[in-house]
């Protein structure tokens, strides 16, 4: 694999940092920390540029909070100036790795996303009798720092860029504790190895794809499974031969162990596609696509909160319309016409 060098001048270029600040503030530009940074934008960017060039830059402390939907997770928010650095780095690095990704890896990539993944999943499900669905257990908390760095070094040889990437990795705040043993581990190996990337970082998203890229190629090129796709830590293999998929599962478990990752035992299953298969919030049947009941319940709760916020003047009519249009656009990817009519007819938008 050809390694790429001389990237750091592009990353620290003032124009790149300026564009990174524009991307980092998207949807957040009226927050106090963003306003303070933008009040002295040129000086702040020059300071950041000088720190990066002198390699005195050090990431700040994360703010953490927990979300419970769709599942309980710890989210880490980096300081705004660090998010500017993340965007500046990704603008230069991501295109290099993007060229190595397979076409059926759908998360955190320009022009991909959940709806495109759903269309491909539906195509595979309706042309195959069986599906092997897998979920990696606690993916981001389990990502091994040294294994990730080795994979990045296979493509990047610019020492300064590697310094910045590894500084960001090493500054990761403690994540959910994961104790898993792998071949040749001693008693303390799972504790001594640094692991875990903060969910919420732009850098964590593309590093997750880098971590899984060799696995994607393993499934497609060594297992010879043509009908395969992945969305972050969820992936599926399709075939008319259940024995082929069962054999693939054993080999997948062995390969993931080399990355120090394990499958979730309760979310990994081999089943017939005619029974209906869950994916990105929908349940795909041979003749229709339905919204999963738990996703529908969450959406109803969010709409109820939105109604309350609008009634109490906490959100504007424009915000309400944007939210409703976004949710309706999502629902349209399933067979949900009657459901949408029923839900939207029941909504009442009045000020208190």
UniProtKB/TrEMBL annotation:
Coiled coil: 31-58, 289-316
InterPro entries named among the record's database cross-references: DNA/RNA_pol_sf, GrpII_Intron_Splice-Mob/Def, RT_dom
Main enzyme class: transferase
Record-annotated Reverse transcriptase domain positions: 1-284
A matching Pfam family: RVT_1
Molecular function, one GO term: thiamine-phosphate kinase activity
Recorded superkingdom: Bacteria
Record-given protein name: Thiamine-monophosphate kinase
Protein's UniProt keywords contain RNA-binding: no
Enzyme Commission number(s) from the entry: 2.7.4.16
Alphabetized PROSITE patterns for the sequence: RT_POL
Keyword Transferase: yes
Annotated keywords: Coiled coil, Kinase, Transferase
Organism, scientific name: Crocosphaera watsonii WH 0003
């Amino acid at each position: 694999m050809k390694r790429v060098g001389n990237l750091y001048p592009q990353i620290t270029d003032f124009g790149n940092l300026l564009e990174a600040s524009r991307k980092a503030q998207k949807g957040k530009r009226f927050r106090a920390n963003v306003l303070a940074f933008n009040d002295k934008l040129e000086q702040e960017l020059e300071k950041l540029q000088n720190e990066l060039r002198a390699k005195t830059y050090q990431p700040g402390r994360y703010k953490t909070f927990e979300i419970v939907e769709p599942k309980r997770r710890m989210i880490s928010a980096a300081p705004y100036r660090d998010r500017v650095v993340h965007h500046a780095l990704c603008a230069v690095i991501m295109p290099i790795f993007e060229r190595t990704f397979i076409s059926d890896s759908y998360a955190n990539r320009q022009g991909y996303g959940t709806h495109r993944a759903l269309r491909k999943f539906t195509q595979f499900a309706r042309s195959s009798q069986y599906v092997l669905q897998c979920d990696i257990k606690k993916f981001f908390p389990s990502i091994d720092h040294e294994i990730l760095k080795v994979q990045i070094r296979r493509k990047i040889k610019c020492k300064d860029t590697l310094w910045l990437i590894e500084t960001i990795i090493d500054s990761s705040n403690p994540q959910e504790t994961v104790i898993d043993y792998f071949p040749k581990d001693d008693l303390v190996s799972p504790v001594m190895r640094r692991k875990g990337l903060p969910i919420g970082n732009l850098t964590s998203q593309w590093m997750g794809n880098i971590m899984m890229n060799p696995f994607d190629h393993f499934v497609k090129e060594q297992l010879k499974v043509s009908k395969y796709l992945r969305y972050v830590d969820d992936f599926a293999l399709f075939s008319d031969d259940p024995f082929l998929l069962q054999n693939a599962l054993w080999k997948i478990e062995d390969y993931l162990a080399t990355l120090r990752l394990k499958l979730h035992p309760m979310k990994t299953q081999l089943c017939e596609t005619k029974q209906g298969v869950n994916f990105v919030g929908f349940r795909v049947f041979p003749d229709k696509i339905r919204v999963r009941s738990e996703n529908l319940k969450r959406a109803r709760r969010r709409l109820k909160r939105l109604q309350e916020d609008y009634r109490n003047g906490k959100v504007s009519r424009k915000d309400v319309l944007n939210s409703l249009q976004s949710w309706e656009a999502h629902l349209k990817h399933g067979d949900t016409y009657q459901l949408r009519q029923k839900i939207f007819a029941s909504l009442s938008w009045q000020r208190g």
